[in-house]
Amino acid sequence: MAQERAYWLAWSQIRGIGPILLQRLHQHFPTLAAAWTAKPAELARVEGFGKLTVETILQQRSQINPEQFIEKHSIANPCFWTPADKDYPRLLLEIPNPPPILYYRGKIDLNENLGIKPTVAIVGTRSPSEYGKRWTRKISMALANSGFTVVSGFAAGIDTEAHTSCLEAGGRTLAVFGTGVDIVYPKPNERLCDRLLQQGLAISEYPAGTQPNKTNFPRRNRIIAGLSRA
Fold first, then answer.
1. Is the dihedral of CA 17, 20, 21, 27 positive or negative?
2. Which of 55, 57, 63, 51 minimizes the C-alpha distance to 32?
């Protein structure tokens, strides 16, 4: 299991191998460790692996030692899950493109990871009306008081209202970052982040140091949806 964890990380570093292709690779070979040493002809039999993709794999994997890489990577990123880990959120394994690496900070609730504790997503505009903010607070507090975990994206506006009101009600919330979990964005949410890490969990598919990028935020929406029952 520990070895397979290193290979999930190593494969995620190969240019052009995103979550979907990595899932196909995982389904095709008995282990990702076996896939790492596969010959070109074997790799070419995986759906979506054309000549250019195979050539890229051969060139880049020769430069990565998975065991050494995970040891070095863990210095800046001590807390992360891969699908090889028993604590990887089970609900995410039900989506077509689960993140191969999921970084986290804060307090873990294993009942959430196992899909036992109910989770509900609340997301919305970054420029809400007072009416929208008021109803977000009401709904988030009601969910928190009923034992639900509120999942949102930590963006300005509705997301911030959802996290804040859930915490004020003494509830638990998950924030899916579009940055590394060590980067607070937007900046005005720094105090909110401090409180969230005491009562909930910040998670991201991006490693430490990843700065805001407009392409990252739409991608994280599948994680918000995947972690939520509704």
1. positive
2. 57
What distance in Å separates the CA atoms of residue 114 and residue 107, rounded to the nearest whole number?
A: 15
| CATH number belonging to domain 80-226 | 3.40.50.450
pLDDT tens, position by position, 121-175 = 999 999 999 999 999 999 999 999 999 999 999 999 999 999 999 999 999 999 9
pTM (predicted TM-score)? 0.95
Cite the DSSP H helix spans in 37-186.
40-44, 51-61, 66-76, 110-113, 130-145, 158-168
Homologous superfamily assigned to 2-76: 5' to 3' exonuclease, C-terminal subdomain (1.10.150.20)
> Measured between alpha carbons, how far is 59 from 53 in angstroms, rounded to an integer?
10
Domain-by-domain residue ranges, the chain? 2-76, 80-226
CA distance 155 to 137: 15
Equal CATH topology for 2-76 and 80-226: no
What's the chain's Rg over C-alpha atoms? 19
Q: Are 216 and 210 in contact (CB under 8 A)?
A: yes
Q: What is the dihedral of CA 217, 218, 219, 223, to 10 degrees?
A: 90
